[in-house]
Each structure stands twice: as C-alpha cells, then as structure tokens.
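Severity: low
Component: inverse-folding endpoint
Summary: output formatting inconsistent between runs
Steps to reproduce: submit the following structure tokens with default settings.
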C-alpha cells in the first residue's frame, strides 16, 4: 500500500508540475541523448541502437579511448536537455526543424571487452553489432580505438546479410598497414586493411576523407593499384568539404548494398579536438566535420556508423567529447529527425 501511494504521488507531481519531464544535462543516467536502455536482443523496430566499446588495447601511441564511450554519452546530455527544454529545436546551421521525438533511439550499454584479449574483444564486438543488425536496426558505436571498427564492420555485414558493404572513413590516417614488426597484424593502424581483405568489401568500395601526415613511400601507387578512393586534406582545401564527402560516399556506395561510416576524431585538427591518441596537425575544422555528418546523414545507403579514438583524459576541456557527441547526433538527426 505504501509503495502504491508513493508512485501515485510521484505521478501526480509530474502531472501537475510544468518542466518536471525535463531532465537537466547533469542529472539522471548517462545514456546517449538520455535515451532508454535496451538489450541488443530487444532493438527490433527502433531506428538506431548505441553500443559503447571501452577498449584501447590496440593503440600504438597514447591510451585513453577506453573512456570515450562514457565521455561521449555525458557530452550528449546537453543536446537531450535542449530538446526537452525547448520542446523541439531548429538547427541554425542547416535551417531545419529537428524533432528528436521522431528519433527512435536506444542505448544498449557497453559490449563486454577483455583488456588483455584482443581476439575475444573483437568477437564480442562482432556478435553484439550483428545482433543489432539482424533486427534491422542501425548500429552506432562509441569507441574505443579504431581497431574496433574492423569487428564492428564484420558484425554489421554478417548480421545485415549484405553481400557488399562500402566504407566511408573520415580519418587522419589510412589504417592500411598489413603488418607491423612491433605491433603485429592487429592494431588500430590495420583496421582498414582487414576490412578490405574481408569477404564483404574491397578497396574499390573504400573511400577515405581527410588523410594527412605521413604514409609509406609508395602509398599513392598503392591507392591507384587497389582502387582506393583517396581524398586527402589538400583535396578538401582545393575542392571544398561538401563536394569531397559527396564524391566519397558515392564511390563507397557504388554497387554496394549499404555503407558503413567510421569517423576517427583525429581527422579533426588537434587545436579543436586534442583528446585523441595520435593527433596530426592540419585537420578538419569543427564546421567541416559537422558538414561531413550532415551530408552523410542524408544518404540512404548509410546504415551503420561509429565514432572512434576519443580519449577524454587527453583533453581537460571536454571539447573533443563535446564535438564527438554533436557529430553523431548530427548524423542521426539527418537520418531520422529532420
């Protein structure tokens, strides 16, 4: 009886008090955009399901991306608060009305990871992503280091049943190393190599945007020989981000059943997003990065996405996590909430 009375009073309070349904950004549970928690088995019928991958056992430089999922969720709370507080939003950048109520999104928590066992961690990522994809729901991953994209891509392809999946990779680095004498065959610099070597795609269905820094001596010849669509940071400076990302997604989607988008936060200039393990100067601006997601979000072929390499311990300002949360929200907004 006492419990029944307590629940009744709480319901009465919510019914009689304006604003009681608005949750402050620093209150409540930390889920992405403050959405409901769901098991991966129970995501059929929703637009997208978020999964965290708190793993950084495959990095080659600075660790810390294991804390990325929690930080991205925390940063996304501000956007959820704004939507609830204002009863809807106008995206000033795009001029569009945004209805987050139309976005059916759940948060499935973090997949099990095994810090000293990369292979089992990879199997866990693939299994959980495949389970989401089998239910016709878009998997959205919060990383984690960029090696995690390889098992996530594999899980998406297997779970969705697609024969060919294109990859759009927004990154400072190509991640096409087949083997390192120091790090072996499986680390965050090899993920795209393993993806292109999988049964589900090849380099002709891979488009890379924002590449800079240094690669192997014959990398441009490698790109030509394999059919890799390569758009360097200089291409963006010459042709503009909208034209480049439009060409990239068109290349990746050609003759493919779907497109997987992976966004490495180190594609953004470290003056804007310093919280990452292998920063490279001369990257995308925050505005360019948002334009990337605005463009990709309108493309029907995009069916899975991740955001990787956010290391919040390397950025005491939280700007890297904040930008990452905005980037994923922009992609979801364009797909489901315009």
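Observed output (run 2 of 3):
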């Amino acid at each position: 009886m006492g419990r029944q009375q307590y629940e009744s009073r709480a319901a009465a309070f919510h019914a009689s008090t304006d604003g009681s349904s608005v949750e402050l950004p620093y209150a409540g549970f930390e889920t992405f955009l403050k959405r409901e928690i769901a098991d991966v088995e129970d995501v059929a019928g929703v637009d997208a399901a978020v999964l965290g991958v708190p793993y950084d056992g495959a990095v080659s430089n600075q660790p810390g991306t294991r804390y990325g999922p929690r930080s991205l969720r925390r940063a996304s709370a501000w956007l959820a608060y704004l939507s609830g507080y204002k009863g809807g939003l106008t995206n000033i950048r795009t001029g569009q009305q945004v209805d987050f109520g139309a976005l059916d999104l759940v948060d499935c928590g973090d997949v099990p990871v095994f810090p000293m066992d990369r292979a089992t961690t990879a199997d866990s990522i693939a299994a959980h992503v495949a389970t989401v994809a089998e239910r016709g729901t878009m998997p959205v991953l919060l990383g984690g280091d960029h090696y995690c994209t390889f098992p996530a891509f594999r899980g998406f392809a297997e779970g969705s049943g697609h024969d060919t999946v294109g990859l759009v990779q927004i990154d400072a680095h190509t991640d096409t190393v087949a083997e390192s004498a120091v790090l072996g065959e499986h680390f965050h610099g090899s993920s795209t190599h393993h993806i292109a070597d999988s049964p589900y795609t090849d380099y002709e269905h891979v488009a890379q945007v924002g590449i800079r820094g240094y690669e192997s001596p014959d990398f441009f010849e490698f790109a030509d020989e394999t059919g890799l669509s390569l758009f360097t940071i200089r291409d963006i400076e010459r042709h503009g981000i909208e034209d480049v990302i439009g060409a990239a997604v068109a290349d990746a989607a050609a003759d493919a059943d779907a497109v997987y988008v992976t966004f490495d936060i180190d594609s953004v200039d470290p003056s804007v997003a310093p919280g990452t393990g292998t920063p490279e100067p001369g990257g995308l601006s925050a505005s360019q990065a948002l334009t990337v997601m605005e463009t990709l979000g309108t493309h029907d072929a995009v069916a899975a996405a991740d955001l990787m390499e956010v290391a919040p311990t390397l950025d005491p300002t939280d700007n890297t996590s904040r930008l990452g949360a905005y980037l994923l929200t922009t992609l979801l907004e364009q797909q489901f909430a315009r």
